[in-house]
Amino acid sequence: xxxxxxxxxxxVTVASVTGTAxxxxxxxxxxxxxxASSVESAAFPASNAVDGNTGTRWSSTFADPQWxxxxxxxxxxxxxxxxxxxxxxxxxxxxxxxxxxTSWTNISPVTAGQAGVQTLNVTGSGRYVRxxxxxxxxxxxxxLWEFQVFGAGxxxxxxxxxxxxxxxxxxxxxxxTAASTIQSAVDSAFNAQLRSPTAQFGSxxxxxxxxPGTYGRVWANVGFYTTVAGLGLNPDDVTINGAVNVxxxxxxxxxxxxxxxxxxxxxxLSIVPEGGTNRWAVSQAAPMRRVHIKxxxxxxxxxxxxxxGYSSGGYLADxxxxxxxxxxxxxxxxxxxxxxxxxxxxxxxxxxSGVQGAPANAFPNPPHTTLATTPVTRxxxxxxxxxxxxxxxxxxxxxxxxxxxxxxxxxxxxIPMREFYVAKPGDTAARINQALAQGLNLFFTPGxxxxxxxxxxxxxxxxxxxxxxxxxxxxxGVEALNIADVDGVKVSGLTFDAGTTNSPTLMTVGRAGVHTxxxxxPISLQDVFFRIGSSVQxxxxxxxxxxxxxxxxxxxxxxxxxxxxxxxxxxVNTGDTGLIVNGDDVLATGLxxxxxxxxxxxxxxxxxxxxxxxxxxxxxxPNQAAWIGPRGNGYAAYKVADAVTDHQLWGGGSYxxxxxxxxxxxxxxxxxxNRSGVQLRSVLTVSLGDVGTIANVVNDTGGAxxxxxxxxxxxxxxxxx
Length: 721
Known about the structure:
The chain has 721 residues and is mostly beta strands. The chain is built from 3 helices and 52 strands. The strands form 8 sheets. Strands 9, 10, 11, 12, 13, 14, 15, 16, 17, 18, 19, 20, 21 and 22 form a 14-stranded parallel sheet that branches. A hairpin with a 6-residue loop joins β5 (90-98) and β6 (105-106). Mean pLDDT is 93; it is low at 1-25.
């Protein structure tokens, strides 16, 4: 607002921010020689603004005027300039070109800058391009993270297609495909990992996609890293008769329950369940989205009545269940923006928001926490095929105070696949960043991607999505993914494995200290999963840092592994914190964070909201002396910073299982400032098998577990304060 008002006073115009660069436009400036009128110090040279790294910047001395210029090497036709300003931006500047570096021509009007990314469409040519700033917006200098010049360069564009090759890990079926062919394909994928000692952390990836139509009897058992999804615009465009089934008894070494049924998903189809009930006995990182169950749904394994068959930690959204949902021995579950006929059951922590037909709020007896609506939602983008046989990605629109499923006739935007780069295992970070610079969105196919550099998303409204649990592994301690502080980026369907060299962060959203209002078009993260320790002995200090205001975090699992394909241990797969939130007005719906060695969630931003939080403390604390936090024994699972004045949490659980040393204790599971604006509702602690102690639920309130009333009995706090 300040920059706009100043612009009006000066008689200048504020440039509009565009959503995309033309697919024919390429970055011309990256790595080219850059000079500036001045530098604040040697730490902020002009070259920092053209190095492709949004973590370095040029900064001038604290005076007007100042300029930054880049030498493109030859005369080029210029179509767009993107400026990624630090908080110290120009309130009045122009873009200029020159053939010789001395005589300059304006190719933009006098323009008011803005903190964050600013995109200017221009027309002009020249060998030299510069930002000429005449007025500063702050008492400091001019400061740019990146200065990017786009135009009709000589580098060939990356080709795209509306009928892309999704790779050998993706099978696509049509309604005319014989049921026996489909059954053979799904059986082959599942049986290869049945009771396998390596499948849980294996390299196998399977995606089964169904084009619109009705399919005869198919019984699809869904194993690790497997996705079953429809390719219709609406779930009812694809009907499977039979089952999409998850049960216990499959996982090597853990056949008696379903608590390790991770990393599988079902999306965008309808099921007519054989026998009337479909089983989906899953735990973390196993989302069910946009599904129509034309019958009943059970979330517990078939052996639940034998006292062993637990499952723990699922997620259901944007779905319709015509019959009854039975949670059985499912220990905790989150359901969002759906419609059900009835819900039966509940163990510790059943949470609903925007669910038509949900049970009444009654925590802790029965343990249902129910919100009539969800404050802000944007459903996950999904792949579909149109009537001409071309592939597209549908991006659902933002909703506020939402309830019920979005479909049919969901509002949103359809993007043709030719506007996506379809990434394949073996693609480098440089190749992926070239696609982003070309103005393309990203679509990751199943497989493993080793990254020696950071994938950097700087364009507003970019869609970054994947199918079949594509797994990004940074090497050399780099950050895997960095999202600039821009409007409307959507990230979904990705898994991150920490590399063997410690990464300070695996993923960052926004820029520390920048508070741009994104309420009208927030960044969203959905079905994004992080692992420290898996098939890799990974290390990362923080897995996810969210700086951007208004970000939506919709179903993440950040997991420091308690077991893996590679050895795990206190000094082996190290990780301090799963999530740090510095942005204001951030909403988390379905937040799963487990086993980190310090505070597992740190919430520094104001007006944050979390609906459903699930946590287990680290199993492997060697002794109490190794685990002393700032306020006593251990670290709380969920820490709201002392300076926060407004924060809300509904439906949170934290569990202790200190099996390496059962004498270990933590003083509290939730640590929050004592003020009226910070409110927790329906929170609990459990000592699993009475192994280890949590002394209180919130601060010094709630009492200890193990609970003397009985084994694995929770302590509940209905409201704090």
